[in-house]
Specification:
The chain has helices at about 5-15, 20-40, 50-65, 85-100, 140-150, 160-195, 200-220, 230-260, 265-290, 300-320, 325-330, 340-345, 360-370, 375-390, 410-420, 440-455, 490-510, 525-555, 560-585, 590-595, 605-635, 640-670, 675-705, 735; strands spanning about 70-80, 105-110, 110-115, 120-125, 155-160, 395-400, 430-435, 470, 480-485, 515-520, 600-605. With about 750 residues, it is α+β, with helices and mostly antiparallel strands. The chain folds into four domains: about 1-40 and about 195-340, Multidrug efflux transporter AcrB transmembrane fold; about 70-165, Multidrug efflux transporter AcrB pore domain like (Alpha-Beta Plaits); about 360-395 and about 560-715, Up-down Bundle (Multidrug efflux transporter AcrB transmembrane fold), CATH 1.20.1640; about 415-530, Alpha-Beta Plaits (2-Layer Sandwich). Strands 1, 2, 3, 4 and 5 form a five-stranded antiparallel β-sheet that branches. A four-stranded antiparallel β-sheet has the order 8-9-7-10, sandwiched between helices. Strand 3 (about 110-115) and strand 4 form a beta hairpin. Helix 1 crosses helix 2 (about 20-40), helix 2 (about 20-40) packs parallel to helix 7 and helix 4 (about 85-100) runs antiparallel to helix 5 (about 140-150). The longest helix has about 35 residues, at about 160-195. It is elongated. It is a multi-pass membrane protein. InterPro entries: MMPL_dom (IPR004869), Mycobact_MmpL (IPR050545). It comes from Micromonospora wenchangensis. This is RND transporter.
Length: about 750
């Protein structure tokens, strides 16, 4: 017993003491969740998230300790034709009077006409903390609606940061609520189809949800070491459901398979632990390694995502090795109840000759080309995947701008009319300057001259009638100027204006001022800086993930060749996913089909995050499939027959796991924002490609061609293999006889 793998020893103890194992798991999850809530969340500050020059500009502005209140705008425009100025002035006066009576309004400014006289703008300053303004903006919107009702001949709209944030929060909140409500029934429905029994389908979901709950608490505790961001919880849910369901599927399907051969419940659990349990541990390490690579991105957002993902994967692996065997042992054959009649007949493991499971028919037919003509199959399949990956060479990276937010809300429609009438209220660059207090007058004069020069350049917005607005901190050390451009944030002309400001105008304006320090920030700057940051860090992260994954796979399978082919196949899968993303989202042909407006680029953070997630999740399937092939080799099979056995015997569970992931990720593709659409499509497409073309076509072709060379390793890695836990399935000579 002492020489048996730790996965088997853990499983046997849990199976022999199921109530203790279940109770310990419940206590563990409860302590993690309650402890995390008690400790509280430590969120990342703006300084923590500073990237590049734009991040430096944010730090300078923060150092100025400005008390910038939240500002809303009342926009008055004609419904048709030209603006009746007298009627507009009367409406502006009425709206201002109504808003002055609203609690939470600090002041209402004088109406400002647009340069062409087609619109009137009334600025409204809110009282209180600007961070919570979105939660307090509704009374102002109600007053604006009353003014609109009193002047129906005009269009009276409220637009500003708080109202846009409130509208987006409402839209995105509905989106995510719908996604959460759909993901659980979709996952359950797919698992019911996969197992044909309700309890068997519920066990993976139970493990996944409990793993997510425990990881949420642990990540809250970990946030005091690595600050958390808004997206951490969402990623824990996404990754936790994916790996939790996967690991349970691997384990439960193997346990059912062994029981179908006539083994006792305890023996079936032990064999599942030695085979699928071992694969779960290896794939868990592979996912953890991939996620750990995010730490090298030198970005607190990615670091927090890495911590959350690592924790949820570690918890899911632990649960699959402890509480899952306990549940299976306690349930026994009840795990196959209640049965869904038709689905049960299609999915239940059936015994064939000599107690082996009946041989499937579909997957041998799919595998036949790869096993009979491996070279031709490999060339064609790899050629297709490389062709799909080719568009990735033209990938462009940008942050989504205001123009990429959904236009389904009145607030965003009003924003478009506001920026058309008042270009300086749209895209702008933040010029942040820090200098000794005695140089404040020289800095102000320099920034005034800079604003005048920029206003004469067509890359920038014309000057406002009341001159440039320069904010100076109370200690006179920090000065801030907003330099507007009339173009959208992702327009190439906005980018050119940024570079002109950074490289020429600002250095020339501040030249000669002693002790001056400056930076240009804003939305365009953040997008450009972050894209450059990702391009610099992606090779480092990739090298780290590839190197450690190679070492883990080499040690696990005692084969350098298996490790190399694993990495190459996963790179091929990731490349195809990148190419598909560029093909779909950088062009316009799929806009109507998927309900988005092309931004002509991929969201900046997506390639790095997508790579580590896909590499980690793809290893789940790869480890499981290659483990079954290795099992066939250890059971005395030839290489070709072992490949056929390994893939046909694992195809059902890999397909089921992939369908679950594709279903959940596809739900995210239905959300309103472009970044969530790209993430959902990228993940769903990559998992689908990986579980089908890569595992059923490319992998068997490669391993059949390499033959015994698959298992080559240096002498120090070689060892005497233990006998297989169970003999492989019946030979499949009809698959391999032709080559």
């Amino acid at each position: 017993m002492g020489g048996r793998p730790v996965t088997v020893r853990l499983a046997r103890w849990s199976a022999e003491h199921p109530w203790r194992a279940i109770a310990l798991w419940v206590v563990f999850v409860a302590v993690c969740f309650v402890g995390g809530n008690a400790a509280g969340l430590n969120e990342a500050t703006q300084a923590d998230q500073a990237i590049g020059e734009s991040g430096h500009a944010d730090v300078i502005v923060t150092d100025g300790k400005f008390t910038d209140p939240a500002v809303e705008n009342i926009l008055i425009t004609p419904r048709t034709g030209t603006l009746d100025r007298a009627a507009a002035q009367a409406a502006a006066t009425d709206a201002a009077d109504r808003l002055r009576q609203v609690t939470g309004v600090a002041s209402v400014g004088e109406p400002v006409p647009s340069r062409d006289g087609a619109a009137l703008l009334v600025p409204v300053t809110m009282a209180g903390d600007p961070e919570t303004a979105a939660d307090r903006v509704q009374p102002l919107r109600d007053a604006t609606a009353d003014a609109q009702a009193a002047h129906p001949q005009l269009r009276i709209e409220q637009v500003g940061g708080p109202s846009i944030n409130q509208a987006l929060d409402d839209t995105l909140g509905r989106d995510f609520k719908r996604a959460e409500l759909l993901s659980l029934p979709v996952t359950l429905a797919i698992l019911i189809v996969a197992f044909g029994a309700l309890i068997a389908a519920g066990v993976p979901v139970l493990l996944a949800l409990s793993s997510v709950a425990a990881a949420m608490g642990l990540s809250t505790l970990a946030s005091h070491l690595v600050p958390a961001t808004d997206t951490t919880a969402s990623v824990i849910l996404l990754i936790g459901m994916a790996v939790g369901v996967d690991y349970s599927l691997f384990y439960v399907r193997r346990e059912r398979e062994e029981r179908a051969k006539g083994r006792s419940g305890l023996d079936a659990v032990e064999i599942a632990a030695e085979t699928s349990g071992h694969a779960v541990v290896v794939s868990g390490f592979a996912v953890i390694i991939s996620m750990a690579g995010l730490m090298l991105a030198d970005d607190v957002v990615f670091s927090s995502l890495a911590v959350g993902s690592i924790l949820v994967v570690a918890v899911a692996v632990t649960g699959s090795l402890t509480v899952l065997p306990a549940l299976l042992a306690k349930l026994g054959r009840w795990v196959d109840r209640p049965r869904v009649p038709l689905l049960w007949r299609l999915t239940a493991p059936r015994a064939g000759r000599h107690g082996q499971p009946a041989r499937p028919r579909f997957w041998p037919a799919v595998l036949r080309p790869a096993l009979r003509a491996p070279r031709a199959t490999l060339i064609v399949s790899v050629g297709l995947l490389l062709a799909l990956a080719a568009p990735a060479l033209g990938m462009k990276l940008k942050f989504p701008g205001m123009e990429d937010l959904p236009r389904t809300t009145p607030a965003m429609q009003a924003y478009d009319r506001l920026t058309a009438a008042f270009p300086s209220t749209g895209t702008s660059h933040t010029v942040a300057v820090r200098a000794p207090a005695d140089q404040a007058d020289r800095v102000r004069a320099a920034l005034t001259g800079l604003a005048r020069t920029a206003a004469a350049d067509p890359l920038f917005a014309p000057a406002e009638a009341d001159g440039p607005k320069i904010e100076v901190s109370a200690d006179r050390r920090v000065s801030v100027l907003e330099v507007a451009t009339p173009y959208a944030s992702r327009d190439d002309r906005s980018v050119r204006s940024l570079h002109e400001l950074r490289d020429d105008l600002l250095p020339a304006a501040l030249r000669g001022i002693p002790g001056v320090e400056y930076a240009v920030g804003g939305g365009v700057a953040a997008s450009e800086d972050y894209a450059r940051h990702i391009k610099e860090k992606l090779p480092l992260v990739m090298a780290f993930v590839l190197a450690l994954t190679f070492l883990v796979m080499t040690w696990t399978f005692r084969s350098v060749v298996v490790a190399l082919t694993s990495i190459l196949l996963n790179l091929l899968s990731a490349g195809a996913a990148y190419g598909l993303l560029v093909l779909v989202f950088q062009g316009e042909w799929a806009q109507d089909l998927l309900g988005f407006t092309s931004m002509g680029a991929i969201v900046s953070w997506l390639p790095l995050f997508l790579f580590v997630v896909l590499f980690g999740l793809s290893m789940d399937y790869h480890v499981f499939v290659v483990s079954r092939i290795r099992e066939g080799i250890r059971g005395g099979r030839s290489n070709a027959d072992a490949v056929a056995y390994g893939i046909t015997s694992s195809a059902g569970v890999v397909t089921s796991a992939a369908i679950v992931m594709v279903g959940v990720f596809a739900i995210f593709a239905s959300l309103s924002t472009i970044d969530m659409k790209q993430l959902g499509i990228g993940l769903a497409a990559a998992i689908l490609l990986d579980a089908t073309i890569i595992r059923a076509v490319v992998l068997p072709s490669v391993m059949t061609l390499l033959g015994e060379a698959n298992w080559w390793a240096p002498r120090f890695l070689r060892r005497r293999d233990r006998p297989a836990a169970t003999p492989p399935a019946e030979p499949t000579p009809e698959l391999v006889g032709a080559h």
